[in-house]
Amino acid sequence: MFYRNPHIQDVTNIQEAAVVYHPEKPEELALFLFETYYPITNDMVIFASEMAAEQAYHQYFH
Asked: Rounded to an integer, what distance in angstroms lies between the CA atom of residue 16 and that of residue 11?
């Protein structure tokens, strides 16, 4: 996934994350990133591989 640096708004990074069932809501999937569960929303773009994320990154940010 792409995420923006909260301290430097014009920096975007690619970070591997896991799609898992949320431990507090077992019927819902969540994105597990940096030891935190994030609800999956329509605003997220999740890539199947790092290569796919890197290709999209270069297409949109270069």
From this structure: 17
3-state helix, strand, coil in the chain (%, to 5): 20, 40, 40
SS3 assignment, position 26: strand
Residue 57: both structure tokens together: 């990154």
Closest to 46 in 3D by CA, of 9, 2, 8: 2
CB 32 within 8 A of CB 16: no
Q: Report if pTM > 0.70.
A: no
Query: pLDDT per residue over 10-39, tens digit each?
Result: 777 777 889 999 999 999 999 998 899 989
Q: Is the distance from CB of 29 to CB of 39 less than 8 angstroms?
A: no
What is the rounded CA–CA span in Å between residue 59 and residue 62?
A: 6
